[in-house]
Design brief:
Elements lengths: L27 E2 L4 H25 L7 H31 L1 E4 L3 E6 L5 E6 L3 E7 L2 H5 L2 E8 L7 E7 H20 L1
Antiparallel strand pairs: 1-2, 2-3, 3-4, 5-6, 6-7
Helix pairs in contact: 1-2
Length: 183
């Protein structure tokens, strides 16, 4: 059962000692199948592009200029090394993504080299959506999109949540956003 962190429920008097500190967030990890799923997707896509490039190189029904034909193996090697580096960095970055739900706000942390923390007060959330593509459905994952007032695009999204957790966060926000706003 999802239990929000209630570290920020007393906000009657705001000063430096009573304001909840963002550094003290109890950040939760995403579902453990999220990072490997992204690794497989990125690896398969890169492999398909490499195979397409190799097919262009070995085909004989279209005559390529000799300079282009000689350049293709080098381009494929550069693409393979670059893809491997990017896929590795994305995998490590996916492992660093975290979220925190407290009584009054929702947070999402990401970034490998450049850390980013997005915070949204629950009272300012206009609506939330659960997104599930075919591979997310296969792995029982969901992406929670959070929309704030005044924008047509989501403020941020939390990918790679276990479906049950995403549904619980979704219900918690829907149940509490108006209660917090009217309190």
């Amino acid at each position: 059962m999802l239990k929000p962190d209630f570290n920020n429920e007393n906000i009657a008097e705001l000063n430096n000692t009573t304001v909840p500190q963002v550094e003290n967030l109890n950040l939760q990890v995403l579902a453990q199948q999220y990072a490997p799923l992204n690794l497989i997707i990125n690896g398969v896509l890169s492999l398909l592009f490499l195979m397409l490039g190799a097919l262009v190189y070995v085909q004989n029904w279209i005559v390529l200029p000799s300079a282009l034909h000689n350049f293709i193996p080098y381009a494929l090697c550069i693409f393979a090394v670059t893809s491997l580096l990017i896929i590795s960095l994305n995998f490590l970055a996916d492992k660093q993504k975290r979220y925190a739900l407290r009584q009054l706000d929702l947070h999402f942390s990401s970034g490998l080299m450049f850390k980013k923390l997005v915070s949204q007060p629950i009272s300012r959330i206009q609506h939330v959506e659960l997104k599930r593509g075919p591979l997310e459905r296969f792995k029982n994952l969901a992406t929670l999109q959070v929309y704030s007032a005044g924008g047509s695009h989501h403020t941020f999204e939390i990918p790679g949540l276990d479906l049950a957790t995403a549904q619980q966060i979704h219900q918690f926000i829907l149940k509490n956003k108006d209660l917090i706003h009217n309190a």
